[in-house]
Amino acid sequence: MWIPTEHEKYGVVLASFRGTVQHGLPLEIGDTVQILEKCEGWYRGFILKNPNVKGIFPCSYIHLKNAVVKNKGQFETVIPVEDSVITEMTSTLREWGAMWKQLYVKNEGDLFHRLWHVMNEILDLRRQVLVGHLTHDRMKDVKQHITARLDWGNEQLCLDLVPRREFSMVDPDEISVTELYRLMEHRHRKKETATPASTHHLFVHVKSLMSANLGEELEVFFHIYDGRENRPLSERFFVRLNKNGLPKWPEKTERQCTLFVDLGSSDLRKDVYIVVHIIRIGRMGAGEKKNTCSVQYRRPFGCAVVSIADLLTADSKDDHLLKVYACNTEIEWYQIHENIIRKANSRYNLSGSNTGLAVALQLLHGDIDQLRREYMGLFTRGVCITKKLGFSDIIMPGEMRNDLYMTLEKGEFEKGGKSVARNVEITVYVLDADGQILKGYVAAGSGEPGTDEYHSLVLYHNNSPRWAEQIKLPIPVDMFRGSHVRFEFRHCSTKDKGEKKLFGYSFVPLMQEDGRTLPDGTHELIIHKCEENASLADCSRYLKLPYSKANLPTNSLTLKGNKESFWITSFLCSTKLTQNGDMLDLLKWRAHPERINDSLSKLKEIDGSEIVKFLQDTLDTLFGILDESSQRYSLKVFDSLVHIINLLQDSKFQHFKPVMDTYIESHFAGALSYRDLIKVLKWYVDRIVEAEHQDHIQQVLKASDYIFKYIIQSRRLFSLATGGQNEEEFRACILELFMSIRFFLSQESKGISPVTQTQAVFLRTFPAIYSELLKFFTVRDVAGFVRETLASLPAVVQADSPLEAVKLQCISKTVESQLYINPESRCILLPVVLRVLHTCLQEQRDLVMCARIFTSMLSLIKKEENGTVEPAVSEEVELIVESLLEVLLRTILEISNRPQPAGPAMRLQFQDVTGEFVACLLALLRHMSDKHYQKLLQAYSSKDDLRDFLLHVFTVFRILIRPEMFPKDWTVMRLVTNNVIITTVLYLSDALRKNFLNDKFDYKVWDSYFYLSVIFINQPCLQLESFSPSKRKKILEKYGDMRVMMGCEIFSMWQNLGEHKLNFIPAMIGPFLEVTLVPQPDLRNVMIPIFHDMMDWEQRRSGNFKQVEAKLIDKLDSLMSEGKGDETYRELFNSIIPLFGPYPSLLKKIERETWRESGISLIATVTRLMERLLDYRDCMKLGEVDGKKIGCTVSLLNFYKTELNKEEMYIRYIHKLYELHLKAQNYTEASYTLLLYDELLEWSDRPLREFLNYPMQSEWQRKEYLHLTIIQNFDRGKCWENGIILCRELADQYESYYDYRNLSKMRMMEASLYDKIMDQQRLEPEFFRVGFYGKKFPFFLRNKEFVCRGHDYERLEAFQQRMLNEFPHAIAMQHVNQPDQTIYQADAQYLQIYAVTPIPESQDVLQRDGVPDNIKSFYKFNHIWKFRYDRPFHKGTKDKENEFKSLWVERTTLTLVQSLPGISRWFEVEKRELVEVSPLENAIEVIENKNLQLRTLITQCQSRQMQNINPLTMCLNGVIDAAVNGGLARYQEAFFVKDYIMNHPEDGDKIGRLRELMFEQAHILEYGLAVHEKYVPQDMRPLHKKLVDQFHLMKSSLGIQEFPAYVRASPVPFTNGSPRTYRNSVPSIISPDAGRGVARRSYPAVNRYSSSSLSSQASNEVSNITGQSESSDEVFNMQPSPSTSSLSSNHSASPNVTSSAPSSARGSPQMAEKHKHSRENACLSPRERPVSAIFSNPLDPAQRAPAHQIGDTTLPRSDPNLSAPDKASSTKNTRPQSPGPMSRSPQKTAMPPFTPSPTECQSTSLVSNSPVLSGSYSSGISSLSRCSVSEASGTELPAGDHLPHPLPPPAPLPNSISGSSDEPIRRENKTPPPYSVYERNNPRRPVPLPHSLSIPPQTDPPALPPKPHQIRTGSMKLDGNADPRVPRPRPLPRKVSQL
To answer: Residues 969, 975: contact at Cβ < 8 Å?
Structure first.
């Protein structure tokens, strides 16, 4: 049976549990669970992070923890009872864990690893805390470390700042808002600026000395040196090195490492150095040979210097190699470091090229205790402390130090009868009063223990040596008296014995008779002569002698005449001994009573450090004098006391204040002193007004706090001693004293007078007296004192008076004092404080101080634990509200709107004061109850005042909601703010309803209210959806969803408005819409009915709701582009499904109305707009690809244009799209986009306002600017033809205004564009069809198909990859079939991509013979509406022997909504057409295409466009090999058999056509082989021979012995047309360029060909040609028959003539084998195979001439109805212009472009064999022009290039005129203009024919050859007018809708 648990409520999972049992709850190790019930070893409960799922789990898997249960029962919550730091750590680590993994995913490796280390560190620290074995101090340290790391991690992960007090998180409900603000501010400041440490320390670790000439032991001395004052700052650190330059005691780290402590901030400057002196111990001369002498001397070695400033930049312990310098002469040794610093190079040099001292140096910051904690390893391992010379900047009480430093400066010695100077060594001893040497009290420096004696340096042969060696004598204080230091001087001989001979000594006593120590400074000591045998053992003998030349007796002439002297400098650093005689005199006042007056006077002159050393003794002395002779010395003692108290105000001695406090509490014994102190203090106060000089009085008042301490303590001692006698007398004295104080405070004075300054001084110290007064007086009495004292200040004070600021400081300290904390005193003091605050806030001065006072006041107001408020507290709140609320609101308004001051410090202060006032306002409002609000609102008698108050409140609340009000990580503070705001708004909304409705309606207040509500709901900090689940849960538990609360309030207030709602329509539509875009279902359900209401009221008022609609759409656009709204929102607007919540959906409400139709229409429009806007918003997110953004923008732009007709929005999106195109470098698309705006403008002078980035200008100017911009972009996109049209339009405008300057520029620009067309290369783009299937795609793509223009060089594979990158979740479909409904409805993304072939519109240009390929290439790939792709399939049973029998092709034609290119790189498919191509038709197309390819390759080979002959070789090989091995035979088997012909009688014409094509192919092959033979290299001759042999086999297999006449005459294939319409196809062009656009012939073909055939077989022709002409290309081009001329087709250069394959497969004959589909298909290139994107596709039926047009307009070759001249005339007038040689556009084939000379066209042999040489030139083009055309061919074209109209066949020139005149003739036909951007009507001048294309005149026109079929456009005109067949170029549509 399951029993609810009592104590087992909370636990942690110890091991993972799979939950496989029934009702089992799966658990992961580390999860926390809440337990509800228990049953026989099982618990039932839930995981805290997912409380909705409950289940059972074993008890043994759970570790129980103590917890507190709140709200016992069904909704109980469990809070674990553990340290709050542990709780925070656990929850924070869980939150970090998820984010940490995301860092890895985002590739933020650095933060990932750092966070990982910190998390591990926190876990280790957490273990230490949980174990519970830490000491209190250690626990504190650990918690500090934990919180520091938690804060660091939160900051790095952009999480919230956590307010803490003593390491624990603070509940914002349990403390005042002002206190919360202070905590947040403190933590924020701490995070922003780390306070710089005032104390610094230098760590030094000596590693080694590297030098080539070592061999002796070394002593290394470090000290810190001030280069500015030329003095050492520290004592010396001493390290001994062995002969190898390594530390002598490596195991003792304290002898190698030191810490130079207590460096002040002023010491870290550039001219402070670390100086190193190195001394060697050994022989006198460094290079002396070893001898028997074992005496060693200390000799100079070198010096190194490094600036301390160099270490400031180094964070870690860096190793430094210091250069060691030696002085040139030993005389300079004492100042070598100064020379190095000054860089006096002449005085020192490097001691060796590779001599260096290796040391580690590091600066550490903070006090020494902090360092001990942070660098524990350093201190535990051992480091010696090197002290500063003198005390540190701050002297701490209790610091014990007694160090005497002596520096051996210099000596002056006589020669002593020697010829050379002496080598002097000094030995130093310290002796006590008995003459015994003190052991171990002579130290060369820290690092080495003290010794009994010290030996100085020896400077070689120097009678005036300067040593400058510092030694330290740490002698105990008790040994100082009677001790002295003795210096013995010895001459060191350099002879063999090396003896040291004593020749004199000096001494100096350490303390004088009167107890003063040796004074600091330099002392010149007397050198007393003495011999070695003279005994120095008895010191009493020489101590009687004078020691210093300064204190020689006047009669001692002998000593005065002594020239020998020795100088030392002494410096005492002692906390116990003094060198000051006046100090000693004062302390010994009883011994010399007569000196008391002088001693007290001299006290002020004594150094402060001397006074604080003897602080207690000095104070005892002063009060002793006062007790014994108060009458005489009371004033002097009082002044001395004041001096000492003020001395402790100095920062250097401020730490001695506790010493004085301790003295007052424990040691002070002056029970009678209070009378004298009060009396003297009152005497001073009374003299203030009359006194001229206030300085001393001000000093007295500064010390008044301590004087009062002494007075009160003295009185307490007296009371204790006497049992409380004279109590009243004491009170009276104090009252009198305060009367005097009040009198002097009440004095008014103008300006800044001395009295004013004195008043200010007193006010500064006055609050410190309260605590002392409270020891003797009641709280009310003291509060009365304070109130009366503050009230006595002058009422009217100038604003700039310093007294006003000091008064505020005094009040601030009063409010922060213990006195004010007591509620009894508060009720007395509060009115005074409020009065002052009100005045200051009203005048807007001293705001920082006002904020501080206000904060302190409010932080004292606390609610009881049960939430009730004491009456006194309630009264207090009422007083503050009444006095300050309104002025506080005004202050916040003013400082928020004031411009922020310059300077970071001022700005920071400014922000602080705003934040503090805001915190005060929030605290005050939070303390207000119903009663307070009622009283507040009742206090406003007039409506205007109440209105102003409400407006102020609402405006301030709007300011508080601003994001910049608090730092971004202050979420806790923001939530508290919002909680206060919503509570206040709920109170104030009642006032709004009661006072400002119906006839008293006030729009401004209501508008302000609604506006506040809207921005409140839209705050980022309330959008719970964006928070982590744990954070969301915490907020909901504490505050609920405040957005819903405010939404309900808005709805309630709206319902109250009644007819006044009309005032807010349409103004509030935007703001309310913003609210509904918040993804909170409850809020939406509350808000959406308001829109219904708005529509209803607008309908009533206007009969429609156009205003609502317009505003709704505008606001939707701006909000959605900001990233608001979601799918659910659209459904909420639209769905009929009932939504949860109290309100039905908007659509349901509308359906009940009379105006439902227009309402539903509006909803539908808004929904469709939402769909597009949502897509737009999602696509515009950072990181989305440009293609998606562009597509989405196009969709939205079209919607605004077509459905909403909102021109301004339309234009805005045009420009957004334009910017996207520019960014993506889609310059052509950018031009088309900007053209949309250009089209909306006219060439008028109408002024246009400033809009977007356009200035105010006329419409003409803007249109001109747009034209120029568009031309520039067309130029960059290489779409020059479109740019030309715009140039012309602009030129017309300039011409009409006679602006010839700009007209000239425009014509030049137009000319440059023409040049670019002819000269520059253009890449041919690929086109791809993309299908987007599945519900996961954005709306504008979903279940739609598009055709996309690829980027330059982009092939199918690259395009597919790009699309998959753009849609990473999409699945690529591997087939081309149309998907079924399951794919359409799938909750996924499917992409179907394959290449498609464009079908050009401008066939007229493409069919013309003379148009260069550079021009044609534009029309092939621009303004394309239709595309096609083919899919092969087998119909019926597949014949395994011959698959061609059943191989059908399914051809799909796609029509787009707009042509490509356009405003986008892709457009949607509007229409699909599907036809099936039969196997026979497919075979015809395949062979046609192969023939075209062969022709092109042969032509290119002849005209030398090919670099090598390989492509032709491979193509010939492929075709011949396939034909021999059954390729063509398969077609014969399939279609030429009797069965097929019987079963398909309708295919007779087609079978004839196939046979014709096969013969034609054989003829072309024969010709190709002839050409191949001419150019084939020697090494490929065997292959050629094999091809020739195989060709003969092929001919025989086809049954060809002799080519029929029609083949020899014109082996030209049909163009790629629809297989369904070939019955009416037109005959082919018989011209050298026929392959470019070849039209179909009618069937049967044989009888329609004339006898103009070759007179012999092609092989014979070629042999003749090669024997008689210069080059085979000449011969080939001179072929008169259509069969040879048609070989020049450039169509066949494209192996993708009918294919949708990517152009990576184009023009690559070598690929034919690679894609072999079957053995029979081996002859086909990849583009010719019948599979979309892999196999070739025949031309679309749409590309062919329509049947009705061809049927009745084609003519036979010989029309019997026309006479010869008519025929000639007809042909002449209708022929197209002659082409000429021109440059090629870039090819995608393997063959290079070429341009042969147009004159290489002469052959006699061939002409003589031709029976048609007598034909008229007018019936065709000349051989010259034909030759040119033939040579110009060779650029591949896609399948859509075939021309619907035939062009006349060429006629060869007679031999006699084949090379005749080049005279140009003018053509009647005009060259078609480029693809137009607009329909233009400008007249065009006739263009003269280029010289190279000129046709020579003929006298006797030759006979007409048979004419090809011609398509007529209406009736054929026979006059001399322009060719009616040449249509006008199709212009680019004017309007976007047609694009």
So the answer is: no
pLDDT digits (tens, 9 = 90+) for 1479-1531: 999 899 889 888 888 887 887 788 775 678 888 899 988 888 876 656 788 88
Axis crossing angle, helix 1581-1598 with helix 1527-1535, rounded to the nearest 10 = 10
| Each residue's pLDDT tens digit, 1225-1271 | 999 999 999 999 999 999 999 999 998 889 999 999 999 999 999 99
DSSP string, 1034-1046: HHHHHH--HHHHH
The CA angle 538-543-548, to the nearest 5 degrees, is: 140
Who's near 1191: CB < 8 A, 6+ residues apart? Answer: 1179, 1340, 1341, 1464, 1466
CA pair distance 122, 112, nearest whole angstrom: 15
For the chain, the average pLDDT equals: 75
Supply the DSSP string of 117-150, one letter for each residue: HHHHHHHHHHHHHHHT---HHHHHHHHHHHHHHH
At residue 216, does pLDDT exceed 80? yes
Inter-residue contact 1644 to 1549 (CB < 8 Å): yes
Enumerate the β-bridge partners of residue 305: 275
- The pair of structure tokens assigned to 349 is 């040099």
What single letter denotes the amino acid at residue 1204?
A: L
Positive or negative, the CA dihedral 449, 450, 451, 452 is negative
State phi, psi for 968 to the nearest 5 degrees: -65, -25
Q: Residue 1408 in 3-state DSSP? A: coil
Pairing of strands 1390-1399, 1371-1372: parallel
pLDDT in tens, 6-49: 888 889 999 999 888 999 999 999 888 999 999 999 999 999 88
The rounded Cα 1507 to chain-centroid distance in angstroms is 53
Peptide bond into 1461 cis (omega under 30): yes
Nearest to 1895 by CA among 1812, 1770, 1798, 1810: 1798
3-state helix, strand, coil in the chain (%, to 5): 50, 15, 35
Helix (H) or strand (E) holding 361: strand 356-365
Q: What is the amino acid identity at position 190? A: K
Could you tell me the CA-to-CA distances from 1321 to 1089, 1099, 1462, 1784, 1787 in Å, in that order? 62, 63, 21, 8, 9
Give 550-553's long-range contacts (Cβ < 8 A, gap of 24+).
Answer: 550/523, 550/524, 552/526
Handedness of CA 1557, 1560, 1566, 1568 (dihedral sign): negative
DSSP letters spanning 1656-1673: S-HHHHHHHHHHHSS-HH
Say if CB 694 and CB 688 are below 8 A apart: yes
pLDDT band, very low/low/confident/very high, at 798 (cuts 50, 70, 90): low
Q: Which band of pLDDT confidence, cut at 50, 70 and 90, is reported for residue 1864?
A: very low
Q: Cα–Cα–Cα angle for 351, 356, 357, nearest 5°? A: 120
Does the structure show a pLDDT above 80 at 1038?
A: yes
φ and ψ at 1346, to 5 degrees? -130, 160
d(CA 692, CA 758): 12
Token pair for 1331: 């299908």
Separation of alpha carbons 480 and 515, rounded Å: 10
**Dihedral angle sign, alpha carbons of residues 1217, 1223, 1227, 1229:** negative
1075: closest CA among 1063, 1088, 1066, 1065? 1088
Structural tokens at position 264: 């002040």
Residue whose entry in the numeric block shows the structure tokens 């003749």: 1664
Local structure of 558: helix, strand or coil:
helix
Alpha-carbon gap, residue 471 to 408, rounded angstroms = 8
Angle subtended at Cα 1326 by Cα 1320 and Cα 1327, rounded to the nearest 5 degrees: 135
